[in-house]
Amino acid sequence: MTAANRPTRLLVITDDVLGVKMAGPAIRAVEIAREIALSHDVTLVSTVGGSVEIPSVKCAPDGSDLRPLVESADVVLLQGAVMVRHPWLRDQPVKIVVDLYDPFHLEALQLEHDDQLRALDDIEGTLATLADQMTRGDFFICASDRQRAMWIGHLASLGRINPLSRASDPTLRSLIDVVPFGINPEPPSRSGPGFRHLFPAITDSDPVLLWGGGIYDWFDPITLQKAVIKASESIPNLRLVFLAGPHPNPDVPTMKVTRSARDSAALLDPDEVHIFFVDEWVPYNQRQNYLLDATIGVTIHRESIEASFSFRTRVLDYLWAGLPVIATRGDSLADRIAESGAGRVVESGDVDSVAAAIVDICSSEASLQAATAGARKLANEYIWEKATAPLRRFVDDPHRAKDLSDPMTKGFIDQHRPPSRSGFAHLLRRSRRNLAAGGVTRFMSATVRHLARRLRIRR
């Protein structure tokens, strides 16, 4: 409750597309809004378009002008690049919660670039975006304790771990806490057909592995494909289905690994007996039908720094549906899967390890049922009510961070902010880098690209 003894007015802002088809950031915004609206006044808006209908949540149909929405809010929860695209947010008196569940600066490292200078520009942009958020946020949430340790390092480098923030709470939980992705407490129930009706080759009795989300450059679908072909020597009717439709956000391009996965499948399975692709992004309110058609959920990634700090949204869907999970070792969810017996954890890039895990789970009904029971038990740890508890505590008693309210400490934090990415000084730094790397031609093309990007941000 606010000081006026009324429900807190929370504005949730996502820079992902809201609608029938949604990706992880939008889904997270929707479910957080739904949960907090049980006790507070919540408005949800996307800066890139779309809307959804949620009981007790006001969904603003147009996020092009955020000012009136922000001015009427007590607390703003934002994610992604919202603040860097709306820099005036820094100067608003509203309390700001920054959602850091997606370590997009590490994802940017995994994107396959042919152009080193372009890659450096992307990394510079993500770091500047994080700095803008982390030097202004009053409270931060992330997806796991492992992520929290990383983000504390970021906050410390920006001056946010200081005598005032430490004095407020030596554990720093009042500054940054864990709000993982969550699960609906009600188990999924079928509302229509899933993927089995799309592919006549898949029968009701066939065991099916489901890749339940986008194919991005940090994943390793080809190792999984090879493992399925190998495991099919023991399980001839084994199938693998990728949900591989175009991303609902048109700003997210088709990645190189998506094309590689399709090319690899054509070579490994030319008769299209074992490997299948669903070419449409599955609507959020229909995903349960696809999950219920599956036997096992899979998430296979390359060994990388991104994997160490990721929190795979699709795994929560697998657990919600009681699916055993086969996951690559290295992230916090893989650790929980191994500890709970909710599936099998495999080695990165190891075809034999993945194939053995598939055969092990599918070898007997008892093995499959044991992993299913483990998945259902683990799912109970992540229901949205539990997951959002730290955020709910902040919204119940919203307050400005003490270190941002104190002039001396605020000055200390401002000294740690990196140089602005706008204005003449930034353009001069970029120009010098482009000239050194590629001469006048490179300088001109990079400058045009930079100006075009700035114009898009200001629209």
Estimated radius of gyration? 23 Å
Strand order of the largest sheet: 3-2-1-4-5-6-7
Structural class: alpha/beta
Mean pLDDT: 88
- Overall outline: globular
Summed up, the helix count is: 20
Proportion in helices: 40-55%
- State which percent range the strand residues make up: 5-15%
Detailed description of the structure:
The chain has 459 residues and is an alpha/beta fold. Helix content is 45%, strand content 12%. The chain contains 20 helices and 13 strands. It has helices at 24-36, 67-71, 82-85, 104-110, 116-134, 145-157, 163-168, 221-231, 256-268, 287-291, 305-309, 313-320, 332-340, 351-362, 365-379, 384-387, 389-396, 402-405, 407-415, 423-458, and strands at residues 9-14, 41-46, 57-59, 75-79, 95-99, 139-142, 176-178, 208-211, 239-243, 275-278, 296-299, 325-328, 343-346. The strands form 2 sheets. It has a 7-stranded parallel β-sheet with strand order 3-2-1-4-5-6-7, with helices on both faces. The protein has a 6-stranded parallel β-sheet with strand order 10-9-8-11-12-13, sandwiched between helices. Helix 4 runs antiparallel to helix 5 and helix 8 packs parallel to helix 9 (256-268). The chain is globular. It starts with 8 loop residues before the first strand and ends with a helix. The model is unreliable at 453-459 (pLDDT under 50).
